[in-house]
Amino acid sequence: MTNQLLEITLTNQEKEIFKLMTSTITHHKLQTVVRVAGGWVRDKLLGLTSDDIDFTISDMTGEKFGNYVLKYLEFVGVEHFALPKLRINPQKSQQVGTARLLLSDLWLDLSQLRHEEYNDNSRIPKVTLGTPEQDAKRRDLTINSLFYNLNKQIVEDFTGKGIEDLKKKLSRTCYDSQQSFLDDPLRVFRTIRYTARFSLRPTEEIINALQNEKVHQMINIKISRERIGNELENMLTDPDPIHSLLLICQMQLYPLVFKMQEIGNKETNDVLGYLNKLLEMLPNINDWNDWKKNRKLRFILSIALLPIIGKYQKKNSFVRILVTKSLKLTLKLSREIDLIHTAILQFSNLAQSIKSNQGIKRSHIALILREIGKKYYDSLLIAKIYSHSNQDLIQKFDLILSQIFDLDLIGVWDVSPLINGKEIMQILNLDKKNARSIIGTVIKSSLEWQLDNPKATKEDLINFIKQDFSNKN
Predict the structure, then answer these.
(1) What's a Pfam family this protein contains (predicted)?
(2) Cα distance between residue 377 and residue 421, in whole Å
(3) Contact, 20 vs 70, CB < 8 A?
């Protein structure tokens, strides 16, 4: 073990909470050592804020220590810790002794130090009371295995590599990488996520293990599709989703994560090309760092699924099947990605039809915008990524984007038709029988005319319909 006297600056709230823990030990004359574990220590050493405080208890369950805290608070009556609560997860607590303590609107996790033993059929280990060294070893990466000892007020590095790896920005497992991933394949996804989040350099051992076929097989055996979808969502809503997806592709995990027969090595290489183009475009994408998580998830996932754009199985698109059935993500998300892909194909067809000496009809752009709505900008960006090897097409996408503004098309998706089908039947003196053969054509033509003539009145549209369709009826 390596003890390092590294400085951690505590907030006032953290000072009060940590003092409460040590005062509880003193009051009840316990021999307990309380440590903060994992992410909070890592973030503090990196100068980041964190309210994700997980405590490890040296000699009892989290539930038991939590009750000691409540008894101490009842004894001293600390008002700013009003209405503290202790919440137990009976199923989880029975095995690992975990509890959650509410203090000052902050939920704190309390758990005993533990040792884990794995078998070949499950990622759920057999858990026993452990030492600090054993508890550190069970964690995914060395940078997440650090402790802050409240009793001594020092950082503890029981793997002997966590602090050094944090300084050198290395991604390293706490023991043999292949065995670590075989024991708990979920660590594969956590490794990718943290490697991307903190711009770490994975060790050669990790790279080899991530690409190992046995590890891939164990992912299929030990992890449900729901959990894989959840981990992917976590990666793609993190600060650097592009890096996460790049790692998935580079580590040959893309076919495994996006599980569908139509996805393989070629598709992996295609996505790598799309992501490299995105990185090239990134400095010019408006407010990328301020995009909301859901928008980034939809955007990156739309790029990840470009290899199956426009492909259908019976009446369902492959996108909807993969998002809802394989990744177990929401139907709403699958519909949004499907809509973006449809808009990409429509914008591509429009771009290909543009001649150098011709303008673009307002209605041609407007009709696409009425389907895609406010997601038009993202759709055009992805269209450029999808066509990244065709510079002429990319320039035409830029022309379409400029025309959206020049032709005052922002908000066209909210424009209501000036005339409905019933009114058209009256204008053309159509009965229900005669209307069947023409009404759809008239409605479509009327909407296109309205979109091409945004300042026209309802009366102008009526005159157009009479002139254009009266003789055809």
Answers:
(1) PolyA_pol
(2) 32
(3) no
272-321 per-position pLDDT tens digit: 999 999 999 999 998 998 999 999 999 999 999 999 999 988 888 999 99
Rg (CA), the chain: 30
- CA quadruple 276, 218, 236, 310: dihedral sign: positive
Q: Which residues of 39-69 are buried (b: 16+ CB within 10 A; e: fewer)?
A: bbbbebbeeeebeebbbbbbebbbbebbbbb
**Hey, how many other C-beta atoms are within 10 angstroms of the C-beta on 375?**
20
pLDDT tens digits, 127-163:
888 999 999 999 999 999 999 999 999 999 999 999 9
Top pLDDT among 396 and 82 is at: 396
Strand ranges, E, within 262-403: 312-313, 316-317
Give the type of residue at 177. S
- 3 state SS for 134-193: HHHHCCCEHHHCCEEECCCCEEEECCCCHHHHHHHCEECECCCHHHHHHHCCHHHHHHHH
- What pLDDT band is residue 103 in, cutting at 50, 70 and 90? confident
pLDDT tens track for 414-452:
999 999 888 888 888 887 777 777 888 889 999 999 999
From CA 305, how far away is CA 303, in angstroms rounded? 5
Residue with tokens 């023409």: 438
Cβ-proximal residues to 350 (8 Å cutoff; 6+ apart), any chain? 360, 364, 365, 368, 400
- pLDDT of residue 201 exceeding 60: yes
Architecture of domain 1-166: 2-Layer Sandwich (3.30)
Render 321-359 in DSSP notation, one character per residue. Answer: HIIIIIS---HHHHHHHHHHHHHHHHHHHHHHH--TT--
Q: Cβ distance 115 to 128 under 8 Å?
A: yes
Residue 390: DSSP 8-state: -
Predicted pLDDT of residue 98: 86
CA separation for the pair 314, 28 (Å, rounded): 68
**Distance between CA atoms of 139 and 38, rounded to whole angstroms?**
8
Please calculate the CA angle 324-328-331 and round it to the nearest 5 degrees: 40
Q: Within the chain, which residue ranges are assigned CATH 3.30.460.10?
A: 1-166
Span 230-238, mean pLDDT? 95
